[in-house]
Amino acid sequence: LAKDAGKNRYQMFDPESDRKAQAHRKELELLRHALDNGEFVLYYQPKVDLENGDIIGAEALIRWRHPERGLLAPDAFLPLLHGSELENAVDEWVINTALAQASAWHDAGLVMRVSVNVSAGYLLAPTFYADLARALHRHGNVPPAHLELEVLETAAIADMEQAVAILQRCRQLGVHFALDDFGTGYSSLTYLRKLPVDTLKIDQSFVRDMLTDADDLGIVEGVIQLATVFERQVIAEGVETLQHGAVLRRLGCRLVQGYGIARPLAADAFPHWCRQWQSDAAWRALTEAS
Ligand code: C2E
Ligand code: MG
Ligand code: MG
Ligand code: MG
């Protein structure tokens, strides 16, 4: 930090910030150990098409199987990685692990797209494209179009020029892109027109509250219309009840994801869930109603 402040300036030694920096280094060490030690796992949350009941994909969501504290959600540790080298390593691990899983499912006849979340830092990192190409090559039986990268809307617009260039390059490999948490990041229509993404993911906060809040309903409707105008796909996250599903379907959003369909599942529970979903009577009725 003192170095960043410039060579000609003196930095007061601050015991408090020094203690914090040390604690952070320690946490990063533990996370590095967790990665090397295979303590990270991916859970998979299904994405379905309410028009026909098809399972269209699964989003990979990281968890830390902590030896003492149990299964930790990403909010408990991802923020510590923010902007570090290790964040890139974790994101790369996620891409490779999700592709390995997709590859195994492919061989078992479970063919669908997997989505992974990519941090802004990694998306813009110089190694990103080569890492991605290598991962796709390594799992050659997975069509690149079966990999979707979810990028935060805020990340994509933080460095527009570079994001557009990277997205274009990666799309030539065949991978898809979705703008995650869409609606939370003030992206103007001009931005959206420039960004080569396939899908808009309506942020769950709007979806969750749209049944009781007219403004949120308006935003959900607006994003669906935006997607139509710009010829992008649209998916709603945070679909917690049948009623959410019914409203979305009526508004023209057929792709959904949320606790109401399924919570994120351990990889080995996923195929079983798929078999059960086919016979889920309540959602069946919804997908058949018109
Ligand atoms: P996200 O990408 O927007 O993922 C959706 C989050 O909402 C997930 O939380 C999911 O479990 C949760 N969720 C899904 N359906 C519902 C619902 O119906 N109701 C509610 N209340 N929540 C629902 P999770 O797994 O805790 O992940 C949180 C965030 O952490 C993700 O938000 C994503 O931004 C980040 N993240 C997760 N895994 C990874 C990863 O492998 N790499 C990176 N870079 N980020 C990740
Ligand atoms: Mg996501
Ligand atoms: Mg999201
Ligand atoms: Mg989120």
Can you describe what's shown?
By secondary structure, this protein is α/β, with parallel strands linked by helices. The protein has helices spanning 15-36, 78-81, 85-107, 120-123, 128-138, 153-158, 160-173, 189-194, 204-209, 214-229, 242-251, 270-277, 281-288, and strands at residues 40-49, 55-66, 70-72, 113-118, 147-152, 176-182, 199-202, 233-236, 255-256, 265-266. Helix 11 links the parallel strand 8 (233-236) and strand 9. Helix 3 (85-107) runs parallel beside helix 5 (128-138). It is globular. It starts with 14 loop residues before the first helix and ends with a helix. Ligand C2E binds at residues 45, 61-62, 73-75, 78, 91, 94, 117-119, 150, 180-181, 204, 237-240, 258-259, 264. It is found in: Membrane.
